[in-house]
Amino acid sequence: xxxxxxxxxxxxxxxxxxxxxxxxxxxxxxxxxxxxxxxxxxxxxxxxxxxxxxxxxxxxxxxxxxxxxxxxxxxxxxxxxxxxxxxxxxxxxxxxxxxxxxxxxxxxxxxxxxxxxxxxxxxxxxxxxxxxxxxxxxxxxxxxxxxxxxxxxxxxxxxxxxxxxxxxxxxxxxxxxxxxxxxxxxxxxxxxxxxxxxxxxxxxxxxxxxxxxxxxxxxxxxxxxxxxxxxxxxxxxx
Length: 238
Ligand code: URA
Description:
The chain is an alpha+beta fold. The chain is 20% helix and 25% strand.
C-alpha cells in the first residue's frame, strides 16, 4: 500500500496531513527517510513516525442488508446513503464493493481494503453474484430452455460491444427467477431482461461468492475471518 495510506491506517492523521508529514521528512521506512507519499510499503516494514513504530489497524469487512430506496454511496443524495445504517469509527474510510441500484435490496459488502474489493468486482476473478429477480411478464414453460440458453450464451446489451459473460438462469416461478452473474455492468440485470423483452419489477441480491445474506433488512455485521479469506480464492478465468 502507499505510504500515505499506511499513515492514515495507523494514526488519526488525514491523508493530507500524512502527505505533509512524509514530505517534511518525518517518516522512516526500514531506517530510511522517505519523502515520497506514493512509495509502496508493506505492513511488515518498520515504519517510524517521530521515533514511534506505526502499526496499521486491521481492515474492516462488513455485510449489510440494503433496504429499498437507499443509495450505495458514501453520502446522501436523492435517497439516504446505506452508510447511515452502519455505526463504526472512521466510516469515511470505507467503500462499497459492487453497488446496487436504489430500488434493489440485498447483500452489500463494505470495506476499507481496496485489494479485497478488487477481487470481488473484477470480472477477471469470476466471483459470482446471485440475484432473485421478480419479472413483470411471466415466463411460459415452453420458453424456459431457450431463455436459459440465451443467458448462458451472452446477450448483446444496448450500447455495448461485448456480449455479457455466461449467466446462469434458474426459473423458480413464472414471475420469479434466480440469476447468477460473474460481472457487474451498469444496471446489468435490468438491461438483460429488457433485451429479452421483459422488465424487472423487483431485484434482490442474495449471494456474493459463497457468502449468503443471513441478516434482516437494514442490519449489518462484521464478516468472520473465514468469510473474508473465502474471497481470496478467486482465480483469473479470462
Ligand atoms: N443489476 C441491476 O440492474 N441493478 C442492480 O442493482 C444490480 C444488478
